[in-house]
Amino acid sequence: MWFEALRGICAHVRAGGGGLTPSDIEPARLSQQQIDELHQRHRVADILPLTPLQQGLLFHASAAHGSGDDVYAVQLDVAITGPLDPHRLREAVGTVVNRHPNLVARFWDGFDEPVQVIPADPAPPWRYVELDGADVEAQVEEICAAERAAVCDLNGQPAFRAALIRVSEHQHRFVLTNHHIVLDGWSKPILLRELFASYHGHRLPAPRRTAASSDGWPIAIAPPPTRHGGKCSTVSTPQHWSHPQIEKRPGGEASQRIACPSKRPGP
């Protein structure tokens, strides 16, 4: 009888049965019913608590929702001159997000305490647009504004997005937008190095566990291989707040130039 029960359990697991339980997501504190509710909304890989700083950012995002003035929406607008492979760039963005799936976490504040949901399929939102007409800058700004609004919908949309805008045959604008709740200024250069290294065909090192950034906030760009709940549990008191670095390109100023070869490097 014991072996029959064991065979039944094995068959259930092979069929994809089961899921997260309250003990799987500690130190987040949710009931099984609440976990099941999140599973109905998303394909869930993990559920994590928020750090005190993230809780504050979520509060401000909720207060600013729909107003278009959330200062914690961070945008990097890069002008790229020369041949560019849009498909390869999209793959590079996907590679980075798969290494750091918490970049596209959803944030849920409908329970007693807020949580972040790490998706089982961490595909970053990608937008490719080919522009024509005279007023290209106005069209670019309209796209950028829509991207900023999207990352502020922390419950319904991923907090990290990428857009590639073709303005002429060899001129592109590469726009990376994120909410500060998943990525801080210290981590942004790490993300860019990994992204362009992947685009050029370089092998990336395994993600490393790190401590907190200079402002005391756990680094979103470098979670451990499975879950980082243990790291979140060590940050139990409010940390030093620092204003986010707004990286939106001011109108009229020259954009950064990055040369992107059209071919991958040889072996």
From TrEMBL:
Pfam families found in the cross-reference section: Condensation (PF00668)
Lineage: Bacteria, Bacillati, Actinomycetota, Actinomycetes, Mycobacteriales
Gene Ontology annotations of biological process type: amino acid activation for nonribosomal peptide biosynthetic process; lipid biosynthetic process; secondary metabolite biosynthetic process
Molecular function GO terms recorded: catalytic activity; phosphopantetheine binding
Biased composition (Polar residues): 233-242
Condensation domain location: 45-210
Chain residue ranges for the region called Disordered: 207-267
InterPro entries: CAT-like_dom_sf, Condensation_dom
UniProt-recorded name of the protein: Condensation domain protein
Species for this entry: Mycobacterium xenopi 4042
Gene Ontology annotations for the cellular component aspect, listed alphabetically: cytoplasm
Highest taxon of the lineage: Bacteria
